[in-house]
Amino acid sequence: MGIVAGLDSSSALTQIVVCDTDTGAVLRQGYAAHPVDAKATEIDPQAWLLSLGEAAGGGLLEGVQAIGVSAQQHGLVPLDHQGNLVRPALLGNDKRAQVSAADLIDALGGRQAWAEAVGSVPQATHPVAKLRWLARAEPEVAQRVVSVLQPHDWLVWQLLGRPARRTTDRGSASGTGYWSAGSGSYRPDLVELALGHRCALPEVLGPADSAGTTPEGLLISAGTGETMAAAFGLGVAVGDAVVSLGASGSVMAVHHEALADPSGMITSYADATGMHLPVVHTNNAVRALRGTAEMLGLDDLDSLSDLAMKSTPGACGLVLLPYLEGERTPRLPHTAGTLSGLRRESMKPEHLARAAFEGMLCSLADALDVLRGRGVEVRRVFLLGATAGLPAVQAAAPAIFGAQVVVPQPADYAALGAARQAAWALGVSQGTLSPTAPPIWQDAAVQLLDAGDELAVGQAVRQQYGATRDQLHPGAFSGGAG
């Protein structure tokens, strides 16, 4: 038996799991909060190392042979010629680059040109847009930038003792806006377009490659971004989609090729196994539920779910379009949410509660259909997030999604994915695993939900939702879903 560790440095904390290389069984774990505000948009990366050291305290890593690193995505760590920070790292939640992203879209010739170049259209979150912002807002600082890393790249580099070689992986690179998952190569001209000059970019490693070995002989695998690590930890494969329920929502699926999407609704990431992870984001998910609960004077979402279960599918004709913060899918940045279908018999709290859950799920089903419309196979839907366990979500999701729904038990899936990658790299280095076949670990404990006889009812709910959406926002999907 070998022992490996997976480290996930998220926006708020560092989580470490120590696992058996053969089965993936968690032997021990640790965590520590980052000593900064989780909502901060800038950070001294040393805070990540302090948190890592605290999480690994008490001999947690004793006997570990390899470490995999997962970290928050879209951060930018700008370095000078000596490898020192030229300013604090810019984090993924920094929205100051919105204008810069729009400038870059125009500078290259539009959204389609970007989609074809790198598989995504610049958003404020992307490092390429942050570089543009840096060049405009802090030109003297920008001139000192000689190389750039992302959070996982920087952590790997630090663990290895800051060697001359700096590395990343396909997953993290695909979120930069200057590396193409389709061609597997950088576009240094786009870095120059954004920053005003070219700079050194980390070497992109393959899924089973190692980034190096520490002076103590500890192997460090390639590492990856949180999204890719979580997908690897869950064990999703072709035919699987993952729907994440946060304040906003996201839908991703495993696919055999990168998808270029001129509309910008699909972001084409690479995954941690050599496949691809097309992702569709929505601006609104659980925030629509929380807003509805507040309207109804309810203290929590459990109460909203209980109330919704007193209604019936279709919410007595009520339809809630949950576009409260504008919407990204469909692309309606300046719209607002809509409540439609009000009749005397539908004006009851339970019907509004039901409409909120159905509206959120139908919006995410629209996002699923964006992927299906590009040939992505979806047989199972993994449902993640604290609200995935609510009865109102579980009662409606399989029929609305038109697929079996899998609800995994809560776990540190990004850290588990990082550990699994470490086991893969270790096995390849020892000659016991193939670089094309990751270790097979025990499946996560899950709850399986099927639509059964409710499938036709779910499709009727979607039709009602789609008719309302298309009436208020004709052409939003160019003939799209529902």
Automatic annotation (TrEMBL):
Q: Which residues cross the membrane?
A: none
Which keywords accompany this UniProt record? Carbohydrate metabolism, Kinase, Transferase, Xylose metabolism
UniProt domain Carbohydrate kinase FGGY N-terminal: residue ranges: 5-224
In Gene Ontology terms, what is one molecular function of this protein?
Answer: kinase activity
Domain Carbohydrate kinase FGGY C-terminal, chain residue ranges per copy: 241-426
PANTHER family assigned to the protein according to its UniProt record, in alphabetical order:
SUGAR KINASE (PTHR43095), XYLULOSE KINASE (PTHR43095:SF5)
Q: According to its UniProt record, which protein family does this protein belong to?
A: Belongs to the FGGY kinase family.
Q: What is this protein called?
A: FGGY family carbohydrate kinase
